[in-house]
Specification:
Blueprint: H1 22-27, H2 31-34, H3 37-49, H4 51-54, H5 56-62, H6 65-69, E1 85-89, H7 95-103, E2 109-114, H8 117-127, E3 132-136, E4 149-155, H9 164-174, E5 175-185, H10 190-199, H11 206-216, E6 218-223, H12 228-233, E7 238-244
Helix pairs in contact: 9-11
Length: about 250
């Protein structure tokens, strides 16, 4: 989970959003649009550093995101074969990283980034692998050179970013030409509204967000899902493979 760092005078924006349905609007958490960025950032970090963050792995298991997540990396879906420099943004408790370790080539290096040092500590303890590097960093100020990575995974990070374009442009910057990204984020439906309430985040409209991705230099290659049922019902949020424009 990573959050952008706008200027002190900036207020959270609503790019990537469309007015949600009435009941979704009542349920969604509006903190990101109501308070200053610094206050929002402190509260979200408090959520992930505290007990809620400590049970994140259990929540992922109950929602089936953790046990079904490996399916995203099967042949014909988000391919990891051939990737040598993989970045996982918003590593959290290591839910996606666990699959990367299993599915990626043995020679691949995996870099884990999260805003919360406490979440990184939990991930390091769970995963215990010398193939991993850990960095506490902001999604819009990543400490890597241009065109460093040929593969990026970004799981449920963007909903904590007031303006997704800033985070997407920074991710595009550190990606090599034709590099691919697996993007997962919370959608503006009923399930997303409950997620918003629990994790203090916002939701995104699918087509509007894809347009912002394209403007940032990232084109949608295919939509994915944890299972055919998830994909048909648009459950599990927005899940797509993006490729950096040549």
């Amino acid at each position: 989970m990573s959050i952008l760092r706008p200027r002190p005078t900036d207020r959270p924006k609503e790019r990537g959003q469309r007015r949600p349905k009435f009941f979704n609007r009542l349920l969604e958490h509006s903190l990101i649009r109501q308070v200053s960025f610094e206050r929002y950032r402190r509260q979200v970090r408090h959520v992930y550093d505290g007990p809620q963050g400590a049970i994140l792995a259990a929540c992922s298991a109950l929602s089936l995101h953790a046990p079904l997540g490996e399916r995203l990396f099967q042949p014909g879906r988000f391919e990891l074969h051939g990737a040598r420099h993989i970045l996982d943004v918003g590593s959290g408790a290591g839910q996606l990283v666990r699959h990367l370790l299993k599915r990626a080539d043995a020679a691949a290096g995996i870099t884990c980034v999260d805003l919360s040092p406490e979440m990184l500590r939990r991930a390091r303890a769970r995963l215990r692998s010398d193939r991993l590097r850990f960095f506490a960093a902001d999604i819009t100020q990543l400490p890597f050179a241009d065109a460093t990575f040929d593969c990026v995974t970004c799981g449920y990070v963007l909903e904590h970013v007031p303006d997704p374009a800033l985070g997407l442009r920074e991710l595009c910057r550190i990606m090599q030409p034709q590099a691919r990204m697996l993007l997962l984020t919370t959608e503006d439906n009923m399930a997303g509204a409950w997620t918003s309430r629990l994790w203090r985040c916002q939701t995104y409209n699918r087509q509007v967000l894809y347009g912002i991705c394209d403007e940032a230099g990232l084109k949608v290659r295919q939509e994915l899902g944890f299972s055919p049922v998830h994909k048909a019902l648009k459950a599990g949020g927005i899940c797509a493979e993006l490729v950096k424009h040549p």
